[in-house]
Amino acid sequence: MSGATGRNEADAAYCAGLVRESDFERYAATLFVTPEHRRALLSLYAFNIEIARVREQISQALAGEIRLQWWHDLLSGTAHGEATGNPVAAELLQVIERHQLARAPLKRLIDAHRFDLYDEPMQTMADFRAYLQDTASALQSLGVKVLAGDIGTNDAVCRDAGLAIGIARIIEAMPRHAARGQIYLPVESLAAFQVDPHVILQGRATEELLALLRNLAAEARTHLQDALAALPDVPKPARRVFLPLVMAGRALDRIEATGYDPFAPQPVSRLRLLTSMWLKARSFDRL
Question: What pLDDT, in 10s, does the model give residues 172-195?
């Protein structure tokens, strides 16, 4: 094995390990695609994790801005320092070249996550949806490009899938966000449902907060149903990038259930998750 080949394999293994530990749902979905496509998807998902976890790795917003700017410069070809020194960056650049991915959506994903660095709340539902479209929906679109090339699919199914997955994940991440003093639920929605932001930061599941979460879950459910209804029009090779919808649906079931407490997470076993995705992968193929 040459030095370059060894580095490439180590970079790929690093990305796989990062996604397995930090985003098992998306990791599990990659188990149902070909090895070549799996490596590319894992590189994209590892990049997403690197960007999304910047807030957790810094103590001051400026340090986070510098990290995000490095990634932005990397995609513009002006980064300082060798990309080969960063396994995720090295893999990402190869995937971009191999699959001819546009860099603009990746840059928008970085820019969207600048919000994470600060404690200011999301202001409007329009801001909230835009954030999810530039992050979760963008990942869906890029995954479709990797799996189906230029055959692709219309943007609506990726948008709906990203919104469904994104809303479910934002709700389930409330305890983690609240612990760091951050609220992703829009200010205008909090006001509409008469939710005091302090109850979120204090980890109290009031009736007003639960009503708001059910309302968001209902919107997510609509996006989920629309995405699933459109799947027959998606090229068969690309359908498996939508497997995370399985767990989004399960999350929405929990959120809508009587007695739900957003501050008492209910982790799903990895075996159950894999079984659910295996069953859904077979059904996706029969559409």
Answer: 999 999 999 999 999 999 999 999
What sections of 23-86 are H helices per DSSP? Answer: 24-30, 35-52, 54-57, 61-76
Rounded Cα–Cα distance for residues 17 and 11 (Å): 10
Identity at 34, one-letter amino acid code: T
**DSSP tag of 121:** P
State which residues of the chain have pLDDT below 50. Answer: none
| Residue 200, SS3 per DSSP | helix
What pLDDT shows up at residue 198?
95
CA 26 – CA 243 distance, rounded (Å): 8
Q: Summarize pLDDT for 37-47 with one digit per residue, the tens.
A: 999 999 999 99
Cα–Cα dist 154/156, whole Å: 6
What secondary structure does DSSP assign to 177-188, as a single string?
Answer: HHHTT---S-HH
Query: SS3 breakdown of the chain: % helix, strand, coil, rounded to 5?
Result: 75, 0, 25
Contact assessment for residue 260 and residue 210, using Cβ atoms and an 8 Å cutoff: yes
Identify the pLDDT of residue 80: 61
> Residue 79: what pLDDT?
65
Task: Kindly tell me the sign of the dihedral angle through the C-alpha atoms of 140, 143, 145, 148.
Answer: negative
CB 135 within 8 A of CB 162: yes
Per DSSP, the chain holds a count of helices (H) and strands (E) of 16, 0
Per DSSP, the three-state class of 26 is: helix
248: alpha, beta or left, given left = phi > 0 and alpha = psi -120 to 50?
alpha
Stretch(es) of the chain classified as CATH 1.10.600.10: 119-287
What pLDDT score does 22 carry? 97
What is the dotted CATH code of the domain comprising 119-287?
1.10.600.10
Indicate the Cα dihedral angle 269, 176, 135, 284, nearest 10°. 20
